[in-house]
Amino acid sequence: MSPVSVGVITGVAFSAWPASQTALDPAIHRLQTLSPVLRAVPSKVYVVAVGLVVGYGTVRGLNWLRRKLLKRLFAYQGWIFQPKCWKTRVGSINLNILLFVCV
After folding, report:
1. Residue 79 Cα distances to 1, 12, 83, 88, 97, angstroms
2. What distance separates the 2 farthest-apart alpha carbons in the chain?
3. Is the pTM of this model over 0.70?
4. How many C-beta atoms lie closer than 10 Å to residue 55's C-beta?
5. Number of domains in the chain
6. Could you give the CA distance from residue 79 to residue 9 in angstroms, rounded to a whole number?
7. Do 41 and 78 meet the contact criterion of CB atoms below 8 Å apart?
8. Which residue has the higher pLDDT, 103 or 62?
9. 72, 65 Cβ separation under 8 angstroms
10. Rounded (5°) CA angle 61-64-67
């Protein structure tokens, strides 16, 4: 799934979950005191925006971590010299998981 679609789903889930509204009330109140324009925006919009940012950021962070792990696994060259080593086996299992399961 793309980061934007996960962000939208998270935003909708945050807006439907009443505990997120009460948890964000102090921050929303402080934000609304900054400007009269911000006071006109309903607090539900802020909750959806926070959900969008959390979902988007989580997916982007996980994709970044996946790229870094793949880069390190592809850089491992021990399989050439020690094909039956435990590091080679664990690395190939991790590589298969990251390539085919976490798509």
Report:
1. 33, 46, 5, 5, 18
2. 68
3. yes
4. 23
5. 1
6. 42
7. no
8. 62
9. no
10. 150
Interacting residues of 76 by C-beta distance below 8 A, sequence separation 6+: 87, 88, 91
Helices (H), 1-103: 3-16, 18-32, 36-39, 43-75, 78-81, 86-96
- Domain containing 15 equals 3-101
| CA angle (17 as vertex; 15, 20 as ends), nearest 5 | 80
Residue 98, class by beta-carbon neighbours within 10 Å (0-12 exposed, 13-18 middle, 19+ buried)?
middle
Identity at 76, one-letter amino acid code: Y
Alpha-carbon gap, residue 8 to 53, rounded angstroms: 9
What pLDDT digit, counting tens, does each position of 3-40 carry?
A: 888 888 888 888 888 888 888 889 888 888 888 888 88
Spatial separation of the C-alpha atoms in residues 32 and 76, rounded to whole Å: 52
- The DSSP code for 99 is I
